[in-house]
Write a structure and sequence with these properties.
about 350 residues, alpha/beta, seven-stranded parallel β-sheet, two-stranded antiparallel ribbon, binds coproporphyrinogen III
């Protein structure tokens, strides 16, 4: 099946494009009433993730409604810990909760690297999405980075300090390495299956990169991300290490094609530090609370800042749940219009 819109894939590979491609992190779900309507028919978030026909439906919604240049498969990074043996609950308005967590060497006996069949529902959702999209836009697959997944498996949920996960790096580095290695292996298999099912690009979300000291991030974060990047050569890979602005030179050496930038990063500096990479980002999601005129001004500033460098327009992190979808549509229109004119 040939793609009718492959802008994002060409941009990811560093090629020239007629205009800047655009998609939005966490575009599936959250802000769309059409998503709520599907979700409210079910027992909750997890049932939606595990029902491939409906996961495909909400994956395609932002393509139809917002006009983005890619679909990201509706799922969650927590699919990996679950397949490894730690089930989670998604607590409404609070976030994920793991009743069982990992703290010691003996806890590692509770988990396995992951039986690929346990994640079949994700691959099925990708296959259905691919059929339904009929080549309109590419599908982005994704996984959490090992450090971020490790944090959830140790903390049992979100945290302000991540001190339980971080203390292990000082008190039991060997065990931390063992767990990070298991997550990495599981993630490589998972991403390869997503690609086989039809994902044309994959993104690694390291949401908690920014809480580590630089030397720990090199040792326990990038070390494992680089193994994933080296293992995936079939499609372009994007690494999004939120808050790790100090690691850009090192990130430039990873074998990924695209680097996601959060809104703390200065695009001009990023262009210098990441000369070999396509850059993705990095509008502040709070811009959507402003009026249309301000949104347009901010889009102009962003496009100007990335000028001369392969760029995929996006936010600096996931969109906030209380965002008005009309503002997002306007943002997508602005990127299309303004980048076309230049
Ligand atoms: O990008 C997309 O639209 C695709 C789907 C997607 C979800 N989660 C769906 C989801 C993606 C790419 C993710 C990634 C994810 N999940 C990350 C990394 C990105 C980031 O934002 O840093 C993280 C840290 C998680 C873990 C997670 N899942 C949390 C902390 C929460 C609760 C708070 C929140 O963000 O809403 C979730 C739940 C979740 N994952 C929802 C959705 C649509 C909300 C559940 C609902 O109410 O329907």
């Amino acid at each position: 099946m040939s793609l009718k819109n492959d802008l994002i894939l060409r941009a990811a590979r560093g090629g020239k494009t007629e205009r800047t491609p655009v998609w939005i992190m966490r575009q599936a779900g959250r802000i769309l009433p059409e998503y709520r309507a599907v979700r409210d028919r079910l027992s909750g978030f997890k049932e939606l993730v595990k029902t491939p026909e409906l996961a495909a439906e909400v994956t395609i919604q932002p393509v139809d409604i917002l006009g983005v240049d890619a679909a990201i498969i509706f799922s969650d990074i927590l699919v990996i810990p679950e397949a490894m043996g730690l089930t989670y609950e998604m607590v409404e308005k609070k976030g994920p909760y793991f009743p069982q967590t990992i703290h010691s060497q003996s806890d590692l006996l509770k988990i396995e690297t992951g039986d690929p069949d346990k994640r079949n529902y994700v691959y099925k959702a990708i296959e259905i999405t691919k059929n339904k999209l009929d080549g309109r836009v590419p599908i982005i697959g994704f996984a959490g980075a090992p450090w971020t997944i490790f944090s959830y498996m140790v903390e049992g949920g979100g945290s302000k300090t991540f001190s339980k996960a971080r203390r292990l790096l000082y008190t039991n580095a060997a065990m931390a390495d063992q767990l990070l290695g298991m997550i990495t292996e599981s993630t490589i298999g998972y991403l390869k299956h997503q690609i086989q099912a039809g994902a044309e690009m994959v993104q690694i979300f390291d949401s908690w990169a920014g809480i580590l000291p630089p030397d720990h991030y090199t040792r326990f974060g990038l070390e494992y991300i680089s193994k994933i990047c080296d293992a995936i050569s079939e499609v372009p890979v994007t690494v999004f290490a939120k808050g790790a602005w100090w690691a850009m030179e090192e990130i430039n050496t990873l074998s990924c094609q695209t680097v996601g930038l959060d809104w703390n990063m200065n695009p001009k500096k990023a262009k210098r530090k990441l000369p070999n990479k396509t850059l993705q980002g990095n509008l502040d999601p709070c811009v959507f609370y402003a009026d249309d005129h301000s949104i347009k001004t901010e889009v102009k500033k962003m496009l100007h800042a990335f000028e001369g460098h392969p760029h995929i327009a996006n936010l600096g992190h996931g969109i906030y749940p209380d965002t008005d979808p009309e503002k997002v549509k306007y943002f997508v229109e602005c990127v299309k219009e303004l980048s076309h004119q230049r």
